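Thread: sanity check for a docking pose with zinc ion

Original post by kr_44:
Hi all, I'm comparing my docking run against an independent structure prediction. Below are the sequence and the ligand SMILES. Could someone generate the full complex and paste the structure tokens? I mainly care about where the ligand ends up relative to the chain.
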Amino acid sequence: MLSLHCPYCGVDVDETDLTPGGEAHLVRSGSGSDDADFEAYLFMRKNPRGVHFERWRHSFGCGKWFHAARATDTLEVFGTYSAQTKEPPQDVQERIRARRPDWKGFGKGDRI
Ligand SMILES: [Zn+2]
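Reply from moderator J.T.:
Ran it for you. Here is the predicted complex with zinc ion included:
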């Protein structure tokens, strides 16, 4: 079972107390964007085997949204952090690089 650390409550939470929110760090397509950008924003999601950044809600706890960096193939969790960030914190990225030397970095080589 997946277990994540809620960065707000400071407790480890089992998957049954969480609600998945899909991919993290999506950039909203603003007014003036073309149809292809808006379609990509609405429908196109990554589904990697490996490092992935996701949104989770501590539904049966504080109710807040947070982000998690984890490996989809091993369920290894690299860290959780506030959802109010545009990219993963440096300490989380360094932890990923230490465990996954082949990882290209956030936003590099993992776009659709
Ligand atoms: Zn919480």
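Residues 90-99 form the longest helix (10 residues). Hope that helps with the comparison, let us know if your pose agrees.
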